[in-house]
Amino acid sequence: MFQPGATMAFLSATLERIRPSPTVAITQLARDLKAQGRDVIGLAAGEPDFDTPAHIREAAKAAIDAGHTRYTPVDGIPELKAAVAAKFRRDNGLDYAPEEISVATGGKQVIYNALMATLEAGDEVIIPAPYWVSYPDIVRLAGATPVIVETRLEDGFRLRPEALEAAITPATKWLIFNSPSNPTGAGYSRAQIAALAEVLERHTHVWVLSDDIYEHIRYDGFEFATPAEVAPALKERTLTLNGVSKAYAMTGWRIGYCGAPKPLVDAMRKLQSQSTTNPCSIAQWAAVEALNGPQDFIATRNKAFRNRRDLVLAELGRIEGIDCPRPEGAFYVFPSIAGLIGKRSRGGTEITDDETFARALLEETGVAVVHGAAFGLSPFFRISYATSSALLAEACARIADFCAGLR
């Protein structure tokens, strides 16, 4: 039995490099408050409220009935790798052989596998901020250094080529690129990607991890593009990541995949063989149907997401002190609260930063959002509008009332 103080001595010092996921922590806090009887509206989780489409669920049931319940190849069944290769050709104009494709237990494991397989102490990874909360912590867990490059609201939260150039050093090993972005919803045009690619083509030691998980969730005619497609010269040092969680409402199925050069995929498979081994066999067969089956429901659901986005933008736009840019994709908005800093809430909390804003908002109104510092940029907060319009309207009304009470 552990004695006082012995537990910390027993645990690995590696864990001191990282923190628990803030978005997961806030989502769990909202669940706990609900369980205590609090009236809580959770806008923290990046999870569609739609059901997994029926044809995908039926494919999973058929897989069970067919006995596809045993171990599979470590990084994906041949049928799923073929479906992934077809998806890359169809949607992105990219050709990947089966040995250049890796399937894992969610997109996060793909990122983890790639960074753990390639990073060492002294390596650097460029991460534009705001960023998905797990990027820098996975880099730190691998013993490397995240190099955070802040973007600006006036640039639409997009990384500028000159900022990328300034961040690259001889120690840079990766750039993590995410479009459309979590947490901002910002999307990069082909021209904007090409401008970044010009910088990267001059620095041949830098690899690109392109997180395309929100590829299909986009609005207002925004045309998605990915770096290996826009700049073919980068393909041999690019990992193109995607998955079924967001567009197919399959967050709990935990299937992510990537296309990448074979030596990297081989290294990732080696690592995965000593961690989780294969992703769930049944979820893999469901993902085959997701990628190969009907895709028309995506446009229908995107229309609902767009309507929700527009509702939130309209409501937040009426609140003095909040400035909210219009996202091109994903299902998040990332408003600035620069105009609210220094004020005090009705409950007596001084709004010194976005974290105190988010905490007071939850305590006084029951609306759970994620503070901008969790994503590496303040003073902002993130709202996920992947929930019903009715809940979003009520949440925005509470936010407006809270802000009106600030003095």
TrEMBL record:
Entry's EC annotation: 2.6.1.-
InterPro entries, alphabetized: Aminotransferase_I/II_large, AspAT/PAT-like, NHTrfase_class1_PyrdxlP-BS, PyrdxlP-dep_Trfase, PyrdxlP-dep_Trfase_major, PyrdxlP-dep_Trfase_small
CDD domains linked to this entry: AAT_like
Cofactor: pyridoxal 5'-phosphate
GO molecular function: L-aspartate:2-oxoglutarate aminotransferase activity; pyridoxal phosphate binding
Highest taxon, organism lineage: Bacteria
Description of how the protein assembles with itself and partners: Homodimer.
Protein name: Aminotransferase
Organism annotation: Meinhardsimonia xiamenensis
